[in-house]
TrEMBL record:
Transmembrane segments: none annotated. This is PhnB-like domain-containing protein. CDD domains: PhnB_like (cd06588). Residues 2-128 form the PhnB-like domain. It comes from the Bacteria. It comes from Celeribacter indicus. InterPro entries: Glyas_Bleomycin-R_OHBP_Dase, PhnB-like.
Length: 141
């Protein structure tokens, strides 16, 4: 199993809570301040060391960048989420797109009854699609 691990600049808790609200499931969050022998500079930190969302749509893991470590969230990767129903795919697309950027509007395509791309308000790029009952033929590589 491959599980995406997302990194955020201090917004991990808000992002993962939003994803849980959109996708359903169980969310576990552990802060840097919960480490055994917490360094003094992290004792009051609200930064997330590890978060895990297990939802009916799959799993996501995430953390904030460690304090003092710069980074760009999900700069060159997209998370793909597919459902069996276009209405459910559209609902998820619209919820992820709230206060985000809809890169490609959700619509029917030749390969899917519903497909769209969005960059959410936390900087995560999503590809949301509906798995068709019969997909077009694809040649093996």
């Amino acid at each position: 199993m491959i599980t995406p691990y997302l990194h955020f600049p201090g917004t991990c808790r808000a992002a993962m809570t939003a994803y849980r609200d959109i996708l359903g499931g169980d969310l576990e969050i552990m802060g840097y301040n919960q480490m055994p022998e917490v360094p003094p500079e992290l004792a009051a930190s609200e930064a997330v060391m590890h978060a895990a969302l297990t939802s009916p749509h799959g799993a996501l893991m995430a953390s904030d960048f460690p304090p003092g470590v710069p980074g760009v969230s999900q700069a060159a990767v997209s998370v793909t989420l597919s459902t069996g129903e276009a209405e459910e795919s559209r609902r998820i697309f619209e919820a992820l797109g709230e206060d985000g950027i809809k890169v490609q509007p959700f619509q029917e395509t030749f390969f899917s009854p519903g497909f769209g791309m969005v960059k959410d308000r936390f900087g995560t790029h999503w590809i949301v699609l509906t798995t068709p009952a019969s997909a077009p033929a694809v040649e093996p590589a």
